[in-house]
Amino acid sequence: MNYFKKIIRFAKPYKVYAIGNIIANIFYALFSALSFIALIPMLDVLFNEEAEPITDKPVYQGVGKAKDYFKDSMSYYIQDVAQDDISTSLLIVITLVIVLFFLKNISNYLALYFMTFLRNGVLKDLRNALYKKTIELPLSHYSEKRKGDTIARITSDVLEIQNSFLSILVLIVREPLTILFTIGAMMFLSLKLTIFVFVFIPISGFIISLIGKSLKRKSDLVQNEQGYFLSILEETLGGLKIIKGFNAESIFFKKFSDSTKRFFNYSNTLLNRQNLASPASEFLGITVIAVLLWYGGRMVKIEGVLDASDFIAFMGLAYNILTPAKGISKASYNVKKGNAAAERVLEILETDNNIKDKPNAIKKTDFEDSLKIENLYFRYEDEFVLKNFSAHLPKGKTLALVGQSGSGKSTIANLITRFYDIEKGVIKIDDINIKDISQNDLRNLMGLVTQDSILFNDTVEENLKIGKQDATQNELIQALKVANAYDFVMQLPKGLQTNIGDSGNKLSGGQKQRLSIARAVLKNPPIMILDEATSALDTESEKLVQEALENMMKNRTSVVIAHRLSTIQSADQIIVMQEGEIVEQGQHAELMTKNGMYKKLVDMQSFEA
Q1: Are the CB atoms for 449 and 520 separated by under 8 Å?
Q2: Right CATH number for 370-608 from 3.20.20.150, 3.40.190.10, 3.40.50.300, 2.60.120.340?
Q3: Per-residue pLDDT tens digits for 478-526
Q4: Domain-by-domain residue ranges, the chain?
Q5: Rounded Cα gap, residues 229 and 259, in angstroms
Q6: Domain 2-349, second-level architecture
Q7: I need a surface site. Which of 183, 434, 559, 572 has the fewest CB within 10 A?
């Protein structure tokens, strides 16, 4: 229940439905008890033919004789209407029973009606909160997390909470009230017999509680394993080309089948224990009924202190307790399962986002002077990947970062965009620390083109509009022309309205990269960050993309992380990096004359070409 106290806040916007559900459940519980009490006059009409007719209106004589007053009043009014006609009397009491059962079931429907809005509302808001948190958390959070596990928490775990959320209201409102009203009716009929019954109920409850103690732990195992095999599935779909190319289908199938086998075993254990709850509670309930038949039968036939009609109604009420008792038992198991799911969901919701805007974050909408990086140190884990890095980039100039893989070039891009926070040092835009600028404004000042062209399963137009949601048709076309993408887009079956498939896989690598550039051009930011934007392309595509990049960088401040050095020879400043440190810097011609690391890299690429 601890985790549900935190989940319950998502129900606050739907408290009207919760109140409606509670009121409907109160009436359900009341009519459920009364419907069995109403059987007594019907049984009297059917079987108690020797009873003397009641001619005088009964008088209430206190709580002690309330049962007699109720039965005599019912008999008096039935006789008054029926005029000693047995058929009419029977019709009256049957109509009363039908009305009460009808009201009971209407109340049940209304309770479920209100619960539908409550459950689905909580489900919607919880999923929205999880998705919002997922996209707000920094990239560092996902460096060691499995995507499939996150997907499992947003899908199956939230559904488990939804089902358990219903169980909570069943557990605390509906079934307890049904039991309470039923006990009241049982005590009304026979206090002695009711006390006898409730000697056995705590014993039954204790036995049932023993069954569910390990459900939460077993449920944890099931949900964690589900997250694991969803991760394998997600990785398989993302890397299918490599899996097929290396004939690795059997490797991945074994990983997946091993996981589903564990899931099979965990699920069997969990469900078998859960399935034991209902038959165990029903068997224990019938045992109580059997003992009740023996004891109550003695009170009717031997002691003569209880009417047969009262005893039959009492038996119906006693059996009426079994259904809510089973409901409480099942609900308690669902809550235990849901508690495990709630724990996993809350782990995401309560994860602290270590990259936050300051309370008084500066609103900055333009770039006026320069980008400065001063004495930067950064590490992902133990080893520093950047050490004492400094650079100055005036407005309108191009800064190129070159070096071997792992030298820290892409880390610079991640820090400028504040995907990660700086450990030591400072990055300034117009002499303002980027930590003092709101993240939204900071990223509005920047456009990003990465080595991997990240596109979405949507139309060309919708992919471009991520850069500018209110872009006009003319703006889209101009962006495509700048990016050398207009001609191939117009040749697509539906032009801008063509769906480009999952990750843009209907397009070639060069086409995808040019769409990525067009998206950045459409955004029209003052600072452009190009992270090895041509490294994965063939020579022909590279030429088209490089031309697009040059068009885009005109009169724009650019940070270019370059793999192919031929693309950055005209940069205003080139910084050569090795193991996170600056080893050389200057312009192309200047660096070539130094005969250092830069010249070696250029010569190596010239030789490879």
Answers
A1: yes
A2: 3.40.50.300
A3: 888 888 888 889 999 999 999 988 778 888 888 888 888 888 888 888 8
A4: 2-349, 370-608
A5: 6
A6: Up-down Bundle (1.20)
A7: 572
Distance linking the first and last C-alpha atoms of the chain: 66
> Distance of CA 437 to CAs 39, 430, 529, Å?
75, 11, 18
**Tokens matching residue 533:** 């934007």
Alpha-helical runs (H) found in 190-248: 191-211, 215-238, 240-245
User: Among 291, 160, 280, which Cα is nearest to 224's?
Assistant: 160
SS3 50: coil
Q: Do residues 123 and 156 touch, judged by C-beta distance below 8 A?
A: no
Burial of 237 (C-beta count, 10 Å sphere; 0-12/13-18/19+): exposed
Residue 300 contacts residue 307 (beta carbons within 8 Å): yes
- Rounded to whole angstroms, the Cα distance separating 423 from 438 reads 18
Decide the pairing of beta strands 398-403 and 573-578.
parallel
Which residues, at least 6 apart from 145, have a Cβ–Cβ distance to it below 8 Å? none
H helices of 137-174, in order, are 147-152, 158-169
Residue of 522, 526, 527, 528 lying closest to 468 (CA atoms): 522
Q: What is the largest CA-CA distance in the chain?
A: 126
Which residue from 43, 514, 520 is spatially nearest to 312, judged by alpha carbons? 43
- Can you tell me which residue has the tokens 């051009």? 521
Q: Are 518 and 556 in contact (CB under 8 A)?
A: no
CA distance readout (Å), 255 to 224, 233, 250, 301, 384: 15, 10, 9, 69, 35
**CA 224, 225, 226, 231 torsion-angle sign:** positive
Tokens of 312: 């039959």
The alpha carbon of 155 is separated from its chain's Cα centroid by a whole number of angstroms, namely: 5
If you ran DSSP here, which 8-state letter would residue 507 be given?
A: S
Q: Report d(CA 573, CA 528) in Å as an integer.
A: 15
The span from the CA of 330 to the CA of 114, in Å, is 21
The CA–CA distances, whole Å, from 580 to 122, 385, 388, 587 equal 48, 5, 8, 20
CA distance linking residue 432 with residue 419, whole number of Å: 18
Q: For 418-471, write each residue's pLDDT tens digit.
A: 888 888 899 999 999 999 999 889 988 988 888 777 888 889 998 888 888 888
Which residue type sits at 536?
A
CB-based contact 483:517 (threshold 8 Å): yes
Q: Are 402 and 575 in contact (CB under 8 A)?
A: yes
The SS3 call for residue 500 is coil
Structural tokens at position 574: 């080139």
Q: What is the DSSP-derived secondary structure letter of residue 246?
A: T
Of 62-66, 373-377, 550-554, the least confident: 62-66
Average pLDDT estimate for 201-206: 64
